[in-house]
């Protein structure tokens, strides 16, 4: 959950742009999505998950990540009294992005369908474990935002922040293409052949 990925890069960018506090809803949306994935996969199991569904959800996730990358690339930085980019990430953004993130599903699916049952985690304990892991998921982009906020306070030149936002948007676009290739294109290509 704490490795650099689209959600954490957006958290870092929010911190750099002085939006760590206003993006709290985004972080909570990420955690809520992880809670939903853990609970649904834990209760429903692998029976509901089909390979072709993952490719469709992955394509949607790639499109949303690319959309956010474009929004970040187009944002402007104002170093007045409060640094603020035009688009603040909200709970909905975190929820949609993480629900459509194939890597989020790949992380939760084996835990919920293999490790939880092997450890005898079911019923109420499944919900408690899922809540605990969801709290950890909130902390991932939150910690990146905190790092960005600390670094952002030391940057006085708006060109540097604008350059960093552009770099973040390029990285997000790269992540979108990478996820699209690994989790959409390859499964569809190997399934067709």
Automatic annotation (TrEMBL):
GO MF terms held by the record: amino acid transmembrane transporter activity
Pfam families, A to Z: LysE
InterPro entries: LeuE-type
Coiled-coil annotated residue ranges, if any: none
Positions of transmembrane segments: 26-48, 54-73, 126-148, 160-181
Record keyword Protein biosynthesis present: no
Keyword entries, A-Z: Cell membrane, Membrane, Transmembrane, Transmembrane helix
Localization per record: Cell membrane
Membrane topology, record value: Multi-pass membrane protein
A Gene Ontology cellular-component term: plasma membrane
Full protein name: Transporter
Organism of origin: Halomonas heilongjiangensis
